[in-house]
What does this fold into?
Amino acid sequence: MTLPPLAARHCWHGAINPLHSTVYFSPDTAKEFAALGITDPVAVNLAHRSAAMGAVGAGAVTAAFYNYRHDLVARHLPAVWDVATPEEVLAARLRTADATLRRLLGTETIESPELAEAADLAIRASEGCTRHARVLYAAHADLPVPEQPHLRLWHATTLLREHRGDGHLAALLLADLDPLEALVSHTATGKGMSPKWLKRIRGWEQADLDAAADRLRARGVLDADGALTEQGAALRERLESETDRLDVAPYEHLGAAGLARLAELGGAIVHKAMAAGAFPRDLRG
It folds into this structure.
């Protein structure tokens, strides 16, 4: 590896994943999907993320998403494809990204050379991604690249986000963390979703979260108060390090200078989006 330690991870967490994720909490998403006839927030979320794979059913989506409750997924898939086709959902998703980024960033930023440069860098990084065993990345990589810079940037962050995410699932399997244990231990780091959002978006009940916490305590990952033990913190760091290793290719392809510039430009864009209220204040654990 020729990159500075943790540089790719910091760029992903600080500039790539948050920019992609703005659409999941945007009022523009509900508006666009309601026009298609999809109004249930869970159905919107599931269709939004899975449409690139086509009109797949609950089994494929539960597998690809890893930490959603299967009966919640089955409640909406494949039924949602009787309401709108994947092609219609993908078009609505792109319209959502357009409206959301314009609202959060403003015209000056949208039309700035810095944003266009960030888009070029992110697209260049995505050229280093690999398809094998990366279902969500590969599905999105088959989609056309938008022409407008802000949409090109959002598309590229989507590719980079799903590429790392697919690799992270492999790391979770090797660490023997089931979907709930992965979520609960991530929440304990202070960087994962709060229990409120795990129940709202992922479909879990408090009893499910409590049972997972009990299993993690039995393994020495959590203490009696639900905080990470020293062993638990080391486990989470090993997970991130293994994910870094599996995800290094696009950033090696971009190079250290390009990665630093993408982190700088993307971080500034994310900061502006967050200041404009891109995410709920109670999202993180």
